[in-house]
Amino acid sequence: MRVFVTGGTGFTGGHLVQRLVKDGHEVGVLARRTSNTESLKKLGVEIITGDITDRDLVTKAVSGFDMVYHIAAMYREGGGIAEKPFWDVNVDGTKNMLEASINANVGRFIHCSTAGVHGHVSNPPADENHPYNPGDIYQKTKIEGEKLALDYFAKGLPGVVVRPVGIYGPGDLRFLKLFKSIQTGNFVMIGDGKVLYHLTYIDDLVEGFMLCGKKDNALGQTYIIAGDRYTSLNELVETIASSLGVKKPKIHFPFFWPVWTASLLCEAVCYPLRINPPIFRRRVDIFRKDRAFDISKARKELGYEPKVGLGEGIKKTADWYKKEGHIS
User: Are the C-beta atoms of 301 and 307 separated by less than 8 Å?
Assistant: First the structure.
């Protein structure tokens, strides 16, 4: 098949492209002019230069493709300095992709949302029917993009919504700060560490994407794709420490709300100056918000089964960080 991928130069999209090529598909990737596309070119991938916010370009680019994986999104660690780019990419850009796919008679549209649309899970684990509970502009706009996709699917575009959970693995840098702080012993546990956390190894996520692209019963559905189990933050930190060959950090600050207030003040000072704050609510919320999910639906309807356990995945990620010189 001819498969069109947005976000193919990123961590998740890049791994998906590799799998698609490996499986014999002809792949086209939409990439911005500033993106590094060298690894994709080596795979023989067709590079279409442009941006999903350019409606006319997207309409032309999607023409002739059989399937679309829409992975691209505006994501910024600090929660963003300006909100407009999030709406431009995560909502308007998604609409452009959906319209272009209808015009091109695309056979299937896989929309990558996020389990973050559920925000804090008040009664874990959450399944696909858990209410929306966004905590920041990224999650708010991802909800709107997901709603758009579901609306287009209801009107006839064959498609599936995927909500990935805590993506990690070799090639990812979002968890690097956490690994570094644990390795150096500088990690500070805020609160009791009993909050729940859930991760998904990149290869398992890609397998989930592929199943959503094949299974006829997946059309019109939404699936949470995650690892085989969730864990406490205490256990996660201990697992990372073990993979790095260091002792679990012992620095502990039992009071959450003073830290959260400090992060709010940092945002208030830094955002008007158009700089990302050193601490921010989204990062601090890891110590407060439960993020645990039920993947029964994906298991039952897709035959999805995670193959990489938490310990193995963390070790592979730590080894990659060391190999690349990110940590010693």
Answer: no
Neighbours of 39 (CB within 10 A): 13
Q: Does residue 251 fall inside a structural domain?
A: no
Residue 162 is predicted with a pLDDT of 98
Contact between residue 121 and residue 292 where contact means Cβ atoms under 8 Å apart: yes
Q: Which residues contact 90 (CB under 8 A, 6 or more apart)?
A: 73, 74, 138, 141, 142, 144, 145
Structurally, the chain folds into a number of domains equal to: 1
Q: How far is CA 65 from CA 1, 2, 128, 161, in A?
A: 8, 5, 29, 19
Q: Judge whether 192 lies within some domain.
A: no
Q: What are phi and psi of 315, to 5 degrees?
A: -65, -45
Nearest Cα to 207, choosing from 306, 314, 68?
306
Instruction: Determine, yes or no, domain membership for 145.
Output: yes
Query: Which CATH number is 208's domain given?
Result: 3.40.50.720
pLDDT of residue 81: 59
Cα gap 243→183, rounded to integer Å: 10
Query: SS3 of 186, please?
Result: coil
Query: Whole domain around residue 203: which residue ranges?
Result: 2-173+198-227+292-308
Helix, coil or strand: residue 167: strand
**133-167 pLDDT, tens per residue?**
998 899 999 999 999 999 999 999 999 999 999 99
Low-confidence residues of the chain: pLDDT under 70: 76-81
Tokens of 317: 């990620």
Contacts 24+ apart (CB under 8 A), 14-20: 14/39, 14/40, 14/171, 15/169, 15/171, 15/202, 15/203, 15/205, 15/206, 16/69, 16/71, 16/206, 16/209, 17/43, 17/45, 18/43, 19/206, 19/209, 19/210, 20/69
271 domain residue, yes or no: no
